[in-house]
Design goal:
The complex is a heterodimer of chains A (276) and B (792).
Chain A lengths: L2 H13 L3 E4 L10 E10 L6 E3 L2 E5 L15 E6 L4 E6 L6 E4 L10 E8 L2 E10 L4 E7 L9 E8 L7 E5 L5 E5 L7 E8 L8 E10 L1 H13 L20 E2 L8 E16 L4
Parallel strand pairs in A: 2-17, 9-17
Antiparallel strand pairs in A: 2-3, 2-4, 4-7, 5-6, 5-8, 6-7, 8-9, 9-16, 10-11, 11-14, 12-13, 12-15, 15-17
Chain B lengths: L1 H16 L5 E10 L10 E4 L4 E4 L5 E7 L1 E8 L6 E7 L3 E2 L2 E3 L17 H5 L5 E4 L1 H6 L9 H5 L5 E2 L9 E2 L7 E5 L2 E2 L4 E2 L4 E2 L6 E7 L13 E7 L8 E6 L3 E11 L3 E10 L12 E15 L4 E16 L3 E19 L2 E18 L4 E19 L4 E21 L9 E2 L3 E15 L4 E15 L4 E3 L6 E4 L4 E4 L4 E3 L6 E19 L2 E12 L1 E4 L10 E4 L7 E14 L4 E18 L15 E17 L4 E15 L16 E2 L6 E10 L4 E10 L3 E2 L4 E5 L2 E5 L8 E2 L3 E10 L10 E9 L7 E8 L6 E7 L4 E9 L1
Parallel strand pairs in B: 1-7, 1-8, 12-17
Antiparallel strand pairs in B: 1-4, 2-3, 2-5, 5-6, 9-16, 10-11, 12-13, 14-15, 16-17, 18-19, 18-53, 19-20, 20-21, 21-22, 22-23, 23-24, 24-25, 25-26, 26-27, 26-28, 28-29, 29-34, 30-33, 31-32, 34-35, 35-38, 36-37, 38-39, 39-40, 40-41, 41-42, 41-43, 43-44, 44-49, 45-48, 46-47, 49-50, 50-53, 51-52
The chains are: A mainly beta (276), B mainly beta (792).
């Protein structure tokens, strides 16, 4: 159970009508390298396919309007089992680095991601995290608080032999993290609700379920919180820095942000329709 | 420590051997003539001897003086003073019945330090409010509210509207001991903090101790909010009530056996669908509380009281989300006079706080709570007119249910899980003396010994190096350690035991009839911690006991003050300076998840806290225009250093503002009685904005725009200043005269100039423009209200 289930409710009801945009002068800090390397292996597809983009950018002041991509970095991946190297290149010069050969992360292999940029070398490791396929994803009839939400029912079977953590991507930048602590080994089903503002019916959404590591789960939980989709108010958690798993091995104090992670992911496409 | 005991002993001896004359004890109880309620804090004064006492929480007084004939002066603010000549030849039991000075329902009674005796009493840092004052103070939606009224006093703040709890002298909300008829109340708020759980009609007396806390109180660091409820009218049957915009109140009281036994039943309920007219499905949000009391006066020496409190909040949105929480208290008390000098009260108290949640859409229910059994035996021993002793023992058995998950439908796939219950016993013994050394100097000194036993539980995690939190040098962050095993205990086992000696000391030195200086020191130990990582506590925060991994919080507080009455008591000035130091104040590692965490020790870092400040309270106590101006200048900080040189702690180990640090806090309250019919009241509040965190940058991962927060500048930013003005007008219809039905209307305007005070400022990306925005959340703009109060 997460606070984020409960608190938004209180906040929506009490505070929603009293929000306004204000001008705030925010402090500034030196730009940091942002490493967004969340690989997805679509294990349930034939043939198995993977998304292995490493996205590099720089942090900027909070109210800056553009986030500059980093296009001049050296990026490669080392398979630590056989020390083979997979090079990445930014073909479109947009900060998205892709493998130069076709590449599917293998099971039980530790991969080390290396990024060299502006005389600093950044490194981090990840291993493919097992997941389970979605049993079903359907649209439901229920609503939640306002009576205008759209329900999506998700069902899957958890692997009872291990501790599992999952990340759901409901598209529209809507994410949910869950752990199997309370449903270990079960056929678990839950409902997710889209707010009226999130979607315009009818529409098609692509829903992704990924197996993630415990550390990435903790990271992502805070990431969702801090990205501000929870409304805040006096019950808001005191915000703090969010460090990932990449290290600047040249100068530890100039740490990057972002994460290197490899998950197994299942996807489902769902047509959402208007219901009374 | 030994030294201190020696002083105590010497003082005690010197005071008892000075007198040779034959002494006689005068004792009794002081009642309100109208309803036979006992009155608390009534001054019983003998001008010839310049000696006096005041009634205790049960209306009892006792004074031992030389044989003789005296004029006894019995006075209480708002009541007509009784002066009676008594020929005191042998010990005498004498009850007094005071008549209210004005018979009208809405008489403002601001109990200020206007009696000479109060300048003399060493008790400092205490504020009192009566039910009548509380009902006058304009509040949001016209709901008279103890806690919202307390915030107008110096040294007391809250996180704002819609925030639970209150902060005293830079202390956290969980550091307030809230006692309702001596029972501990764990949650003082309804509706997540909009209203407090105390029904103003039932309240007899409210005292807030901010410092110099007497030895009879313990278990919380910052303050004691000591609330006594009415016992019930033992003369006539009476109905009191009110109809407001948010809730209605009704109180019935009357005799069971005239002047011997009475009952009281009070209820308050909010209207359903509160706040929710905007949504058209079956939402509900309401609260209620019920107070019942029965007492029986067996004879002059024995009195029995049974009281209960039940309060509950229910908040539901369709069937998908239902949230219930509340307090229950059952309390049996027995007053017994061992002699005319020894008053005792034995209390047997059960109290609990529960929190429940149904989250149908994810398929489970959640229950958590805290239950305690409290046995207290307190004595007041009136040795002579110069020495009054209080002593007693207290033992509290506490059971903590940190949470339980129950599948709410068979198809949900949720596996039931119970977080490990925890058990503890808190014992204390204390002795406290109020000792008048001479005409100028009065001391109050004592000590409390407290012992806390963390009792056996089913499974206690064991960690490598006994460290539940590890510092990951590689990633430069604190992480939860993985337990290396569990230890099992029997319920009777003691996992951890803590002992604390808590000395308390206050003195007052009277400069002249109108001026005094007071100083105090108190040490307090707190064994329970409210796990809360938000700006203001939430109802779902759980309490955790001290034990192997969490140490008790310890406080040392020093305060000095200067008190002056001007113009024969028409004005009074109280100034105090305080310094507080707190050991073992916990904070949390980054990304800590406190909810349903069975290994809470793995997210806790230990640190300390300090607060210091200056309080000024200037009051006008008499006349058509009365009121006060309170100003507090203070600082409240926290420090969480690393455990060794390699760890940064929080904020690089530097001091940071606590979430409730408010540099300036000004409140102004004024009431004006235009005539018998109309009365006006106004409040103005100004507080420095509370600490917050602004992002130092932004970045994008996974399509999410994320603000960057800098750990080296924790709580370094501030919300805009909070200020508002409220006014109210009370209309007492002239038709009240000569009839039993007494009524009044209270019209209020809260936040008159409609300032949208910031409850928080959050940063997020606009979902349509994809631009970053700072969003200020405000809770109440201008809120008009009307309340109808009646008494029959």
């Amino acid at each position: 159970m997460k606070k984020s289930y409960i608190l938004p409710v209180l906040l929506i009801l009490f505070f929603a009508s009293c929000e306004k945009v204000v001008e705030i002068e925010v402090p500034s800090t030196a730009p940091k390298l942002i490493i967004d390397a969340v690989f997805e292996v679509y294990f349930d597809e034939t043939p198995v396919r993977a998304n292995t983009v490493v996205k590099l950018s720089k942090s900027v002041d909070y109210f800056d309007e553009t986030i500059p991509p980093v296009t001049n970095a050296t990026v490669f991946l080392t398979n630590l089992t056989d020390n083979s190297i997979i090079n990445f290149s930014d073909v479109n010069a947009d900060g998205n680095y892709e493998p130069t050969i076709s590449f599917i992360p293998a099971e039980n292999v530790v991969y080390e991601l290396t990024i060299i940029h502006e005389n600093y070398t950044y490194k981090g490791t990840a291993t493919r995290i097992k997941s389970t396929p979605l049993t079903s994803v359907t649209q439901g009839d229920e609503t939640l608080f306002a009576g205008t939400e759209t329900e999506v029912k998700v069902e899957f079977t958890d692997d009872g032999t291990q501790e599992n953590f999952y990340l759901f991507d409901f598209s529209k930048k809507l994410f949910l993290t869950i752990e199997d602590r309370f449903f270990n080994g079960s056929d678990y089903n839950f409902s997710y609700f889209y707010d009226e503002e999130d979607i315009t019916l009818p529409t098609t959404v692509n829903i992704k379920m990924s197996g993630i590591s415990k550390e990435f789960y903790t990271y992502y939980r805070v990431l969702i919180d801090q990205s501000g989709q929870n409304a805040g108010g006096p019950f808001e958690t005191i915000p703090s820095s969010l460090l990932g798993n990449m290290i600047n091995i040249t100068d530890e104090s100039k740490f990057p942000l972002g994460y290197f992670h490899i998950s197994e992911t299942d996807t489902a496409t769902l047509n959402l329709v208007e219901k009374n | 420590m030994l030294h201190f005991k020696k002083i105590l002993f010497v003082l005690f001896i010197t005071s008892t051997i000075v007198f040779g004359q034959e002494k006689i004890t005068l004792s009794g109880t002081v009642y309100d003539n109208a309803n036979n309620e006992t009155l608390i804090g009534v001054s019983v004064f003998i001008p010839e001897l310049n000696a006096g006492t005041s009634t205790n929480e049960y209306g009892f007084y006792s004074i031992t003086i030389p044989k003789g004939t005296y004029k006894i002066q019995v006075s209480y603010v708002g009541y007509t003073t009784i002066v009676e000549t008594i020929n005191l030849l042998e010990k005498l039991t004498k009850d007094f019945k005071l008549k209210e000075a004005a018979e009208s329902l809405d008489e403002i009674i601001i109990e200020a330090d206007i009696e000479k005796l109060n300048v003399r009493t060493p008790q400092m840092s205490v504020n009192k409010l009566t039910s009548a004052t509380i009902k006058q103070i304009p509040v949001v939606l016209g709901e008279a509210d103890i806690i919202k009224s307390l915030i107008l006093l110096p040294g007391v703040t809250s996180a704002g509207e819609g925030a639970s709890g209150f902060n005293v002298r830079g202390g956290a909300a969980d550091q307030n001991l809230i006692l309702l008829d001596e029972a501990i109340v764990f949650n003082s708020s309804h509706l997540f903090g909009f209203f407090s759980v105390f029904n103003p009609d039932v309240i007899k007396d409210v005292k807030l101790y901010k410092g110099g806390i007497p030895a009879r109180f313990g278990g919380r660091l910052s303050s004691v909010l000591d609330i006594y409820q009415k016992e019930g009218n033992s003369k006539d049957f009476n109905l009191t009530g009110g109809i407001g915009l948010v809730s209605s109140r009704l109180l019935a009281e009357g005799p069971i056996e005239k002047e011997k036994s009475s009952f009281l039943i009070g209820g308050r309920a909010s209207y359903a669908h509160l706040f929710l007219p905007l949504f058209d499905n079956d939402n509900k949000a309401y609260f209620y509380d019920v107070n019942t009391k029965v007492n029986y006066r067996f004879n002059d020496r024995n009195n029995l009281f049974l009281s209960t409190y039940f309060g509950k909040d229910i908040f539901g949105v369709s069937d998908n989300f239902v949230n219930k929480y509340g307090n229950n208290v059952v309390n049996l008390r027995w007053n017994h006079l061992f002699s005319d000098k020894i008053f005792s009260n034995l209390s047997l108290i059960y109290s609990d706080y529960f929190y429940g949640l149904i989250l149908d859409f994810v398929g489970f229910e959640w229950d958590s709570g805290i239950t305690n059994f409290n046995l207290k035996y307190d004595f007041k021993h009136y040795i002579n007119e110069n020495i009054k002793l209080s002593y007693g023992i207290n033992t509290i058995y506490i059971k903590f249910n940190p949470g339980e998950i129950i599948p709410n439908r068979t198809s949900s796939g949720i596996v039931a899980e119970k977080l490990t219950d925890k058990y503890a016993n808190e014992f204390a013994a204390y002795i406290d003396a109020e000792h008048k050394i001479n005409e100028k100097l009065t001391l109050q000194y004592g000590a409390r010994f407290s012992n806390f036993l963390r009792l056996g539980q089913d499974e206690l995690n064991v960690y490598a190096n006994n460290q539940p939190v590890v510092y990951n040098e590689q990633f430069k962050k604190y992480e939860s350690a993985v337990a290396t095993g569990v230890e099992n205990f029997k319920r009777s086992d003691v996992i951890s035991s803590f002992n604390n000696f808590e000395p308390r000391f206050s003195l007052s030195y009277v400069l002249n009839d109108n001026e005094s200086i007071k100083a105090s020191y108190n040490r307090m130990a707190q064994y329970l911690h409210l796990l809360s990582n938000t700006a203001s506590p939430t109802p779902l925060d759980v309490w955790a006991p001290s034990g192997r991994y969490i140490r008790p919080q310890l406080l040392d507080q020093f305060a000095i003050g200067y008190f002056k009455t001007l113009n024969n008591g028409a004005y009074s000035l109280e100034t105090e300076a305080f310094y507080k130091d707190i050991q073992n104040r916990i904070d949390y590692i980054n990304g800590a998840n406190l909810i349903a965490n069975n290994e809470i020790e793995t997210v806790i870092l230990n640190g300390h806290a300090r607060a210091y400040g200056l309080e000024v309270l200037f009051r006008k106590n008499e006349g058509d225009f009365k009121g006060w101006l309170a100003y507090t200048l203070s600082r409240s900080e926290q420090q969480t250093p690393g455990r060794n040189a390699n760890e940064p702690g929080i904020n690089q180990g530097n001091w940071y503002s606590s979430p409730f640090d408010k540099t300036h806090d000004i409140s102004l309250n004024g009431s004006y009685e235009l005539n018998k019919k109309w009365k006006f009241n106004a409040n103005f509040l100004f507080q420095t904005g509370q600490p917050t965190n602004y992002p130092v940058g932004q970045y994008e991962v996974q399509g999410l725009n994320v603000p960057i927060f800098d750990d080296n500048r924790r709580n370094a930013d501030r919300l805009p200043a909070y200020h508002r003005l409220d006014i109210s007008a009370t209309l007492t219809p002239t038709t009240n005269n000569n009839r039993k039905w007494q009524a009044e209307w209270v019209f209020g305007l809260y936040n008159l100039y409609g300032r949208m005070n910031a409850a928080s400022i959050n940063f997020r990306q606009n979902r349509e423009t994809f631009r970053n925005e700072a969003i200020q959340t405000s809770i109440f703009g201008l809120v008009p209200s009307v309340t109808y109060n009646f008494k029959f």
